[in-house]
Design a protein that fits this description.
By secondary structure, the chain is an alpha+beta fold. The protein contains 16 helices and 20 strands. Helix content is 37%, strand content 21%. Helix 10 runs antiparallel to helix 12 and helix 14 packs across helix 16. The longest helix is centred in the first third of the chain and has 19 residues.
Length: 480
């Protein structure tokens, strides 16, 4: 009875708008602002329709039969970046329109859908006329707090909607409440578990940077949130200065793996050290594994690192600094033919966008420590630095993806084919074993040119050799 009364009030509000021409009204009987003035103009809508569905845009031919699907879509937009739902538009962006006599019914269903979302996000609804067809535009504002439908919080990933996992939900709640893991006391640890020489180096670097240094080391550590008020090490203290920190924080490890095929790999090293030492040890391993190779660019032949070590160091530092330490999973660094992938637990903070990253640290104490020690030069520049370095590299492209509770950074050797058509032609031929002489003859190029490209393709893991001496042949690898 109560719901019928609300719908009746909503109808009255709509009629009053039509008669009196009010620009908008916010009525207690409805869960959204019904706008007389369009929330977006027709030109904007046409541009959006051309681009298609995505993170902030959803098309619907008509309203779903039940409120649940609509509730999930609105909830997901509110928990992501906000956005628009266009009702009366098909999946290809063609305007079908909604029948005039069904507009009130659709608005009732929008209201019904919102009634099942808690807390309710800010939503604006308007009816827009384009080419004599009516479409309903539902504008959803990004929510400051997590919204849920029936105790399930949804999020939008690209065009798709999915529920947040327990880990993701916990991470977002912690982010909202500003409870930082690295500031909490590290249970069962004591000052005996701290590497004193690292602490001394930290204090010295504070002096070098002109930062205040207390006469009492304990007071300095408390102010820096490396010790609690009762003098116990925090998680940041153990992670930055602890001896074998995984004794207390299980996931505080880095595993370096080399893949030989899709089913075979070798664990090169597992590193269980405080973050500053871990970064140095990882880079020692990578600098030995990363080869220096000759590459022919559009202008000249150059000798380069097959992967830019400076960008790799930035990625390793970022992973150890910003990972989610609530999750008991190590950081994985995987060397694959033609690619290095770094996976760390925890998505990027919900307020941070990959396209325009800002300094929103998940672990601010760790972040400050690494800045003092010189591992971080400037805050909020890591992704931009990695992208810039790879843009200048003749082989490697940089990719970053954050979803389903983890962040993956990839350095992929693929630029070669945009700059060297001969390498691509050779790779296209190697569906069957061929010698360098055979390749030279088939392509009509010199044998030294073919051999040079084959060496580059082998270093990228895209080509493997068969046999020896005069019987030496080459074939495309399973990773190509």
């Amino acid at each position: 009875m109560r719901k019928i009364f609300k719908y009746a009030r909503l109808n009255k509000v709509m009629k009053r708008i039509a008669k009196q021409g009010k620009t908008h009204v916010e009525e207690q009987g409805s869960s959204f602002k019904l706008e007389r003035e369009q929330v977006v103009d027709a030109n904007f809508i046409i541009e959006v329709l051309k681009k298609g569905e995505g993170l902030t845009v959803e098309f619907k031919k008509s309203i779903p039969e039940t409120y649940k699907k609509l509730s999930r879509d609105i909830c997901a937009l509110a928990n992501s970046e906000g956005g628009f739902i266009f009702i009366g538009v098909d999946d290809d962006g063609r305007i079908l329109g909604v029948q005039k006599h069904k507009i009130k019914e659709i608005l009732k269903k929008v209201n019904d859908g919102l009634m099942h979302i808690y807390p309710k996000p800010s939503v604006h609804v308007s009816v827009v006329e384009i080419s004599d067809k009516s479409i309903i535009v539902v504008k959803v504002e990004k929510s400051k707090s997590i919204t849920a439908v029936g105790n399930i919080a949804y999020v939008r990933i690209g065009e798709n909607v999915r529920p947040l996992s327990i880990e993701e939900l916990g991470e977002r709640l912690v982010d909202e409440m500003k409870i930082y893991y690295d500031e909490l006391e590290c249970k069962q640890s004591s000052l005996r578990d701290i590497n004193k020489s690292l602490v001394k180096k930290y204090v010295l670097q504070r002096k070098v940077k002109g930062l205040p240094v207390s006469k009492s080391l304990k007071q300095l550590m408390i102010k820096a949130k490396l010790l609690t008020l009762n003098g116990k090490p925090t998680n940041a203290c153990v992670l930055c200065f602890g001896i074998n920190p995984s004794r207390f924080i299980y996931g505080a490890k880095v595993r370096i793996i080399e893949w030989h095929s899709k089913d075979s790999f070798t664990l090169i090293q597992e590193i269980d050290e405080p973050i500053p030492i871990a970064i140095s040890k990882v880079m020692d391993v990578l600098s030995k594994l990363v080869k220096r190779i000759e590459v022919k660019t559009l202008k000249e032949r150059v000798i380069v690192e097959e992967y830019p070590l400076k960008a790799l160091k930035e990625a390793v530092t970022n992973a150890l600094t910003h990972r989610n330490y609530y999750v008991d999973t190590p950081i994985f660094i995987e060397l694959k033919p033609g690619e290095i992938q770094i996976t760390n637990p925890g998505e990027l903070p919900s307020r941070l966008r990959i396209e325009s990253p800002r300094h929103i640290p998940r672990n601010p104490v760790i972040s400050d420590c690494l800045w003092v020690l010189g591992f971080i030069e400037a805050f909020g520049t890591g992704i931009a630095n990695m992208r810039s370095i790879c843009e200048q590299h003749p082989l490697v492209r940089f990719y970053i993806h954050s979803d389903q509770g983890e962040t993956i950074v990839r350095f992929v050797k693929e630029k070669l084919f945009t700059q060297d058509s001969l390498a691509k032609k050779i790779l296209d031929l190697l569906v069957e074993p061929l010698s360098s002489s055979q390749i030279s003859s088939l392509l009509g190029v010199s044998k030294p040119s073919v051999i040079a490209r084959l060496k580059t393709l082998q270093s990228m893991g895209l080509v493997k050799s068969l046999g020896k001496g005069r019987g030496l042949k080459y074939i495309k690898s399973e990773f190509a």
